[in-house]
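Sample 1 of the test manifest.
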Amino acid sequence: MTATVEKKLHDCRDAWVETLVELGEADPRIVAVVNDSVGSSKLAPFQSAFPERLVNVGIAEQDMVGVGAGLANGGKIPFVSAASCFLTARAMEQVKVDAAYSQHHMVLVGQSPGMAYGELGPTHHSIEDLAWLRILPGLTVIVPADPEETRQAVRWAAQHDGPVFIRVSRMGVPDVSPAGYEFAPGKAVTLRDGSDVTLVACGTVVGRALEAADLLASQGVSARVLNMPTLNPIDHEAILAAAAQTKGIVTVEEALTSGLGGAVAELVSERHPTRVRRLGVTTFAPTGTAEWLLDHFGMSPQAIAASAAELVSS
Amino acid sequence: MTVEEDLVPEVHVEDVPKDVFSVIGRVPEGAPREEAIAFLRDAARAVRKRDIQMVSAAGLGHIGGEYSVIDILVTLYLHSLRMGPELLGDPERDRFILSKGHAAAALYTTLAAAGFIDPDDLSTFMQPLSQLNGHPARTKIAAVEASTGPLGHGLPIAVGTAIAGKIDGSARRTFVVTGDGELQEGSNWEAMMTAGNHGLANLCVIVDRNRLQQGAKVEDTNDLEPLPDKLRAFGMEVVELTGHDHGALMDAFAQVPAASGKPTAIIAHTVKGNPISFMSNNVAWHHKVPTPEQVAQAIEELEQS
């Protein structure tokens, strides 16, 4: 087996804050809103550069999202950043009404989502966020896979006149974006072409899908790998092409399978029925590290490859 | 009478007189105080007449809470806000947010009186495809600063708008009206804490203190008292007044921003359903729809008020 994924792992929060500081220097309208999460959002460099543009409302998530909407009304471009588990679950109605329904230009940044707080338990896991948010009309939902995609998503959101959710992980991820990659909302990135099966992944597990494709290749199975950074709107064209051109689709996500997997299954069941196997979290998790939990839920490269091979041969 | 009959009363739109409302406009610049108060009183009477017609025609609405807040809305839009149709989209406009979004008909009627909405459009209230939703939507009406309806949203948004103004060193002010029952939502207290700690003198929260919520008295549900002490403890400058007294409202709004540098909280003591005899302070009129006879009686009482 030849591993083609570079093993150096990155914390995407570094790319997030570097980009926000860069945007803040260019545009005085950029502000950050946090719930006592300057440290966990890695916002210290932004706070030192623009102390008057960091609004810390304390441990008050409903207030935080509302304040973000108000800042947008007042002509600012707010980046509302908090642990994804609290940003979404505690302030879900504000996300629905103040951001999505109101169509404010505001960016919700869900930090350390999925199983990132593995050992802290299901209260701190954000496994529901993708399923909850991808169904909100008018809210763009972006799940970057690596630092480059994070940088580009943050830049895109700053100039997009509408509400955006970006999921930024602290889990170590490899670089997966091809050279010269340019993020386009609603567009999948074909990381590898293939004709037997399609692996569709987003976020932190894209690297694992690439490793699975290597394992499959060594078994003589040709796997297409799609990185799907935007869940709403999702790339219909790429998914329907995969349904038509390969024998089945395996979705992989660091979330409940009703997120990316749900979106793919809904689309193909209506437009081009094909076999779909959804890999992801399926229940409240036991205790463990994030990496261990991903393996536990069947998302090790070996397990992803095995699921795909079984789908092709069945 | 069955529950269904109670919810969907018979409404004869054609029985409702339609000649009681036209565009009113702002209190003339430089008008003496007594003249301004008389102007606002006339405007509020016309807004109440049109409001009850709208609720009757739609067969839905929240007439009780609308009648408690109309004098506040009329004073703001026709006199105190530095905001008019010519300032739509102007970054330096004053902001107003109706957090108790169920009083939408009162807001729409006031916006029509102030020239933001075509008065003819009021007849589309809650009709299919109307811009005049049962609760105000910022994507549908340019003058609506925030989409509201679920309670406890307006004050956090107003705090954000006020922080933006403070960052900009701007003189613009933000006013927000909450219901008193609405203060049972915890998000308000999160926002109040932020407002006090940020010293948002450019913020004015007006509590429509009618002491009734949907199902019962506020004090019998989850009491707010001692409300002035609570607001003061959160760092607010507290003013108490009669929310139907246009002069008192004008004077209080002119004091924003407060000299103390604190956010202003106005506890506006109001009467739900004011001033209609059969609606006043009657919990049944939270979202009860008046019959044509009741509309006629209300209009007669308004004309004599």
